[in-house]
Design brief:
Blueprint (H helix, E strand, L loop, with lengths): L1 H8 L3 E4 L9 H28 L6 H29 L4 E3 H34 L4 H4 L2 H27 L6 E4 L6 H6 L6 H35 L3 H30 L7 H22 L5 H4 L12
Parallel strand pairs: 1-3
Antiparallel strand pairs: 1-2
Helix pairs in contact: 2-3, 2-10, 3-4, 3-10, 4-6, 4-8, 4-9, 6-8, 8-9, 9-10
Length: 312
């Protein structure tokens, strides 16, 4: 049954509207997205390179940060070039296979980034609350598991959603009122009932977001209590500065995700959804290296909490 429906959908095409209703803003939008993409690539790859070439930054903290930057770069590379293409090229069409593959890849990196935010929160919790046991707790085996886990779950989640998308039927030319092949816009043009796929997507998104938020907020509370008990004012400032950047990233990332899934898909909300999608797919990956800025004292001093555990 799935194969039959998939064969029927192979010839389907999707016409992506993007921001075609704002033709006068085409040049400014191209320049804006090009600047965002350039900053995203240079910023995230810069963080990865600095961490890789500097032995003093070969800690579990910066190891997870380098993977967070890698995921942000990959997510942006999956979406932003296509976004630029759809703004420049007049014939904004994409094949069924191309649309599904874009969704699949974007899904992997989006889920992975969500879980990596929780991983970095846990790492900070151990570093601040149990500094003497840090190297014992964050062992190479646990470090490898914390890095591999988000990638594996990202693939499983995206594959599951893609499977149920392939079970839907699509015929002829379909109009997508967005600039990316997101789950909501794909199912909106399906010829069959997308209820199961929509419910599954909602469950997966809520599970990932809530799990990440619970871990982050719980560890942040323990970190805050520990900081309050610290006798050194300098220690207060250092830890608060480091945790504030992470909480900022969490707030922007999860706030945007929850906003996109809470806004109704009415005709009047499409522009808001498009702007929110741009923030989620293009702006957030750019902000990642800025939030975890290289001017962070730990990077400048090439040390973090005096730990030097080697890469896993």
């Amino acid at each position: 049954m799935l194969i039959a429906k998939g064969n029927q959908s192979i010839g389907a095409t999707f016409s992506v509207l993007g921001f075609s209703e704002f033709l006068g803003l085409q040049v400014p939008l191209v320049l804006l997205f090009l600047i965002i993409y350039t900053v995203t690539v240079l910023g995230n790859l810069g963080i990865i390179m600095i961490i890789r070439i500097n032995p003093k930054l070969h800690t579990s903290t910066y190891f997870s940060l380098s993977h967070l930057s890698f995921v942000a770069f990959c997510y942006s590379a999956t979406v932003t070039p296509k976004l630029l293409e759809k703004v420049v090229v007049e014939g904004r069409t994409i094949s069924f296979t191309g649309c599904i593959m874009q969704f699949f890849l974007a899904g992997i990196f989006a889920v992975t980034e969500t879980l990596f935010l929780a991983v970095t929160a846990y790492d900070r919790f151990v570093a601040v609350c149990n500094p003497l046991l840090y190297t014992a707790v964050m062992s190479p085996k646990l470090c490898a598991s914390l890095v591999a886990g988000p990638y594996m779950w990202g693939v499983v989640s995206s594959l599951t959603l893609m499977y149920f998308l392939l079970a839907l039927s699509f015929h002829g030319s379909n109009l997508i009122n967005d600039f990316i092949c997101d789950h909501s816009v794909i199912v909106s043009v399906s010829c069959s009932d997308p209820y199961i796929s929509q419910v599954l997507c909602f469950v997966i998104v809520i599970f990932n977001v809530v799990s990440s938020l619970v871990i982050t907020l719980t560890t942040s509370i323990f970190v805050f209590v520990t900081v309050i008990k610290m006798p050194s004012a300098g220690g207060h400032q250092k830890v608060i500065s480091t945790c504030a950047s992470h909480l900022t990233a969490i707030t922007i990332f999860h706030g945007t995700v929850l906003f996109l899934y809470c806004v109704s898909n009415s005709k009047n909300s499409w522009l808001i959804i498009k702007v929110g999608s741009i923030v989620y797919t293009a702006v957030i990956p750019m902000l990642s290296p800025l939030i975890y800025r290289l001017r962070n004292k730990a990077v400048k001093d090439k040390k973090f909490m005096n730990h030097s555990i080697q890469f896993c």
